[in-house]
Every structure is written in C-alpha cells, then in structure tokens.
C-alpha cells in the first residue's frame, strides 16, 4: 500500500498547484507503474514516450498511443498506469482562466502534429514553475493557445486497463505480437486457460471480447506507425497483421470513422493551413 506521506511528497501532489498562477512543467521518467488517483486545480497536457500508458478518469479509461497527447481539464480526478517505469512523461500544467475556449473543459486524446512536437521539444529542459511574464511562460502558454486551432480530431476510443494479473500477461503477449495471426484457441492454451474461461475473463475484466481488444489494439498501433511516416499505408497494414489493405482500411474506418490516408492528412498542420 502506498505510504500517504510519500504520496503527498510527489510532485503532482505537492508542487503543481503550489503557485496557482504559474504554468508547471515536468519532464521525467515516470519512475512508478502506478500514479494513484489525484487531481489538480490546473489543467494537464500529458504526452508520453516509451511505454504503454493507460489513464483512468471518472468516466473513461484511456489508452494513450504514441504521438498523441491527453488533455485533462482542471479538477479532474485521474490515475495513470504504465507498463514500464522508464516511460517518459512530458507534462505541462496550466492555470484555469475565465471565459476559456470549450476545448479546455473537455478531456480527450488528440494527435500531436509536427508543430506541437517541435514546441514540446523546445520545453524539454524546463522543469518547475514557469512564472507569468517570463519568456518560458510565454512559449508554454502559446502551446496551450494553439490547441483548439490544431486539435480538431479527437480520438474517440478508449481501451480498458486489465486488473487481473493473468490477463495483464496475456495482453503483454498480444501487444508484442500485433503483426501475427493470434488464434483465440491457441492463446488460451498458451496461458493454461480453456477458451470458455478466457472468454469470461476478458468479458469480466475488460468488458469486451478478445477480438474486440485485438482489433482496437492493432488499429492503435497502426495509428502510431502512420504518424511516424516511415511506412506506406500498405506496409502499416502488414505490420499490424492485415494481408489485405482494403480490409485494413475498412477496419480503420469502422473504428475511427476515417480512412488511414484521411487520418494522416488530418494531422499534418501544413496541409491544414493550405485548405
């Protein structure tokens, strides 16, 4: 059980709201597999690298894909789970202002386009309170200001976090083999389950079937690869286990409401500015 004193000493409890008017910046290794439920008076911009991240709020459990960020409005209780203590968290915490754009009051996951990534990279060596009137504050506040303009495509997709330790091991295996054809019967046998008992475990712990989880997880991985821009759509389809590009495109559309090429084009800021 987490010691209450050590919990209260964590930066996200002790430091973030210490100066109500500052923007608080924190870039570091996560250092723990679980950040317990807490909340801030400030809104949180969360971008992560190097691990599988789940964020749980009162209404959703979000899977945070690579090259995406999560906006957590002020005073929103949330916890963060990760597969690796070595995951890097890049956080900006913004004070709440009156008459703000509606964007800032809604939690959601958005693609991080090249412009946003470059601006975040600029803050890479900052940590602590950025005082109003300082150059660092002005730059960080500019990041907040552009979000409603460039983040028009919210990822309406959540992937539950497994509580059962047996299922955690199974999902880790699935995540490591997204490009392979995984048969449910073989998966059950590999981990010592009958098909019926494993089906019940998925439904009980995740409230979805294995095929639903596997399909969504593949598409989330595809999104990551598409945004890296190193592979063609056909190559991405093959990398996540689809031998047919049309089948991949149709599945992508069914889950996200847009084709893979539309998704990539939608997060390219230069193309947006041209239209």
Write structural notes for this entry.
By secondary structure, the chain is of the alpha+beta class. It folds into two domains: 4-150, Jelly Rolls; 165-266, Homeodomain-like (Arc Repressor Mutant, subunit A, Orthogonal Bundle). The chain is built from twelve helices and ten strands. It has helices spanning 4-9, 11-14, 114-122, 135-150, 165-176, 184-190, 195-205, 210-228, 233-239, 245-256, 260-266, 269-274; strands at 23-29, 34-38, 43-49, 53-57, 61-64, 68-72, 78-82, 88-94, 108-111, 128-130. The protein has a six-stranded antiparallel sheet with strand order 9-6-3-8-1-10, with helices on one face. The model is unreliable at 1-5 and 267-275 (pLDDT under 50).
Give the CA-based shape.
Answer: globular
Spatial ordering of strands, largest sheet: 9-6-3-8-1-10
* Nearest-integer average pLDDT: 86
Q: How many strand elements? A: 10
**What is the helix/strand order?**
HHEEEEEEEEEHEHHHHHHHHH
Cα distance spanning the termini: 54 Å
CATH topology of the largest domain: Jelly Rolls
Q: Bin the helical content.
A: 40-55%
Number of helical regions: 12
Q: What is the CA-atom radius of gyration, in angstroms?
A: 20 Å
Specify the biggest β-sheet: 6 strands, antiparallel
SS strand fraction: 15-25%
Structural class: alpha+beta
The CATH class of the largest domain is identified as Mainly Beta
Number of domains: 2
Classified in CATH, the superfamily of the largest domain is: Regulatory protein AraC
What CATH architecture of the largest domain would you give?
A: Sandwich
Poorly predicted ranges: 1-5, 267-275
């Amino acid at each position: 059980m987490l010691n209450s004193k050590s919990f209260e000493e964590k930066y996200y409890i002790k430091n973030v709201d210490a100066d109500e008017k500052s923007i608080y910046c924190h870039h570091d290794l996560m250092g723990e597999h679980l950040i317990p439920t807490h909340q801030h008076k400030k809104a949180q911009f969360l971008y992560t690298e190097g691990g599988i991240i789940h964020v749980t709020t009162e209404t959703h459990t979000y899977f945070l894909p690579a090259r995406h960020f999560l906006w957590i409005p002020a005073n929103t209780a949330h916890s963060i789970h990760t597969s690796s203590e070595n995951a890097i968290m890049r956080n900006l915490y913004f004070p709440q202002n009156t008459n703000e754009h509606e964007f800032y009051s809604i939690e959601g996951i958005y693609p991080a386009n090249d412009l946003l990534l470059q601006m975040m990279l600029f803050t890479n060596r900052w940590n602590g309170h950025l005082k109003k009137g300082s150059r660092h504050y002005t730059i960080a506040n500019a990041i907040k200001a552009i979000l409603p303009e460039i983040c028009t495509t919210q990822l309406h997709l959540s992937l539950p976090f497994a509580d059962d330790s047996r299922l955690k091991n199974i999902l880790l295996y699935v995540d490591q083999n997204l490009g392979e054809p995984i048969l449910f019967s073989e998966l059950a046998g590999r981990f010592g389950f009958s098909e019926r008992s494993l089906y019940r475990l998925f439904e009980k712990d995740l409230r979805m079937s294995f095929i639903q989880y596997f399909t969504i997880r593949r598409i989330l991985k595809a999104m990551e690869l598409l945004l890296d821009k190193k592979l063609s759509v056909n190559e991405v389809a093959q990398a996540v286990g689809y031998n047919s590009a049309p089948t991949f495109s149709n599945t992508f559309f069914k889950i996200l409401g847009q084709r893979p090429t539309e998704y990539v084009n939608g997060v390219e800021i230069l193309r947006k500015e041209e239209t």
